[in-house]
Design a protein that fits this description.
Shape: globular
Number of helices: 4
Structural class: alpha+beta
Number of strands: 10
CATH architecture: Alpha-Beta Complex
CATH topology: tt1808, chain A
CATH class: Alpha Beta
Radius of gyration: 18 Å
Length: 194
């Protein structure tokens, strides 16, 4: 008797609206650490010490650089993306005023000056987001890679999910802070080595 190939495995992508409906219905706990990436609901692992340190340090440095009058620094908070995308970036900077206030919605990633993901053990997931962030029009996307102590800077998003410029900045380098005339030393956003 010949074995037949199994039927093709079919999957279903969820939309952002469906995820919010599941939260409202209590199917998904609104406090659970989840992200919707390309229609898949992904569990986000708890932050380790080094991850939490870098997120707090970067958030605090952005608050000092941007000030608190014209900009808001959001840390580990859901932002709007696209139909199949609800990311929760580690740090994001947006203007303090915008249409999201009157429309009572999360700001979209294209309404931020910068979105930052800090990677300690989540490099695969954070690199998977690169395409979605570009498609959604995120102006600048940084991946802060803790193991390599470097930052990959993505600028110039394209609708096809690629970027005009991708640069890796080593620990000895400096980053240009988007939207203001400021520089940030990469070494200053990492904890001292053991």
């Amino acid at each position: 008797m010949a074995l037949q190939a199994p039927p093709e495995v079919r999957t279903r992508r969820f939309t952002a609206d469906e995820v919010w409906q599941m939260v409202d219905a209590g199917i998904i706990d609104g406090n659970e650490r989840l992200e919707l990436i390309d229609g898949e609901i992904c569990l986000v692992s708890p932050s380790g010490w080094d991850h939490a340190w870098v997120v707090e340090e970067l958030g605090n440095r952005f608050m000092r650089l941007y000030g608190l009058d014209d900009y808001i620094v959001r840390m580990q908070s859901t932002v709007g993306g696209s139909e199949f995308y609800l990311p929760e970036p580690d740090v994001g900077v947006r203007p303090s005023q915008g249409p999201w206030l009157s429309e009572r919605r999360h700001p979209r990633v294209d309404e931020f000056l910068i979105i930052v993901e800090v990677s300690a053990t989540s490099q695969y997931l954070d690199r998977r987001k690169v395409r979605s962030y570009a498609q959604a029009g995120t102006p600048v996307y940084w991946i802060v890679d803790i193991p390599s102590r470097s930052v990959t800077v993505h600028q110039g998003p394209r609708p096809d999910g690629t970027w005009d410029h991708v640069t890796e900045v080593a620990e000895s380098g400096e980053l240009t802070v988007p939207g203001i005339d400021a520089r940030l030393a990469v070494k200053d956003i990492f904890p001292a080595e053991k």
